[in-house]
Here is the input.
Amino acid sequence: MRHALTVTVLSLILLLAGCGKKAPESGKPGEAPAAKFVIGVSLLTRTHPFYQDLEAGLTEAAQARGWELIVTSGEFDVAKQKDQVQDFIVRKANAIIVSPCDSRSIGTSIQAANEAGIPVFTADIACLAEEARVVSHVASDNVAGGRLAAQALVKALNGHGTVAIIDHPEVESVIQRVAGFEAELKNHPDVKVVAKLTGRGIKDQAFRTAEDILQAHPDLDAIFGINDDSALGALAAVEKAGKAGRVTIIGFDAVPEARQAIREGKIYADVIQKPKEIGRKTIEAVEAYVAGQPVAPAILIECGLFTQEEALAEK
Here is the structure.
């Protein structure tokens, strides 16, 4: 009996001693895992190759940091995009990245995120609403890109001719590239802009806009499409009008379909952007901000020019 009691007491002492030991940090029972860093993303669209590449850049950089992305798109619908941003606020995202469908209308949504203490970044398209606070805007240098487009056009026209612009003035990046395009043409007074109409950056609408332009200006020499959907829509209208080879077309983005048209000589040239780099640099800006490091209010990525020479050199 005494032996049994001794064993019981010893067992109890060992048990209490074991309970007093500190468990490893990773094994604390009942401790919640560290919350994941979540970024809400609302793109202009997810159907366009440019934005697909931009999303790929965002995703690659976020995954490398162990962050979660919630990716949505407004699909050119301002109200839809506003709802998406509001949802990110309700879900208490750690940061929000937006490519606005409308550079001014998005302001109230960004302001709501500001009031909720959520930092906002813009990618490709900036916010122009003065009341909204954006930490950093990451995009192509669209003014320089517009100048490249104009220089290519002047070369194609041998320094004289008429040109129409298929525009999308609700979008800040387009405003910038058109400003660069028109600024460069001031150096070439014999190349004149005779029409500037919106195609909203959508191929079907650009096609109809180009048809209207060609009817109003039957001797038109060239068209500048502010993106490749605009350029490809213009190409379809030019071909339908029987003016293939007579109207020079310049685009912007160098998506695969446009590259093929350039290879075939149907589009003269495209300004080429680096959407994956825009995505990666945006995530880098978020990382720097949350680490308390200074972040530039604008981070611009250099553009290039894609011509038939480059297209034929591609494998």
Observations:
- The chain has eleven helices and twelve strands.
- The radius of gyration is 27 Å.
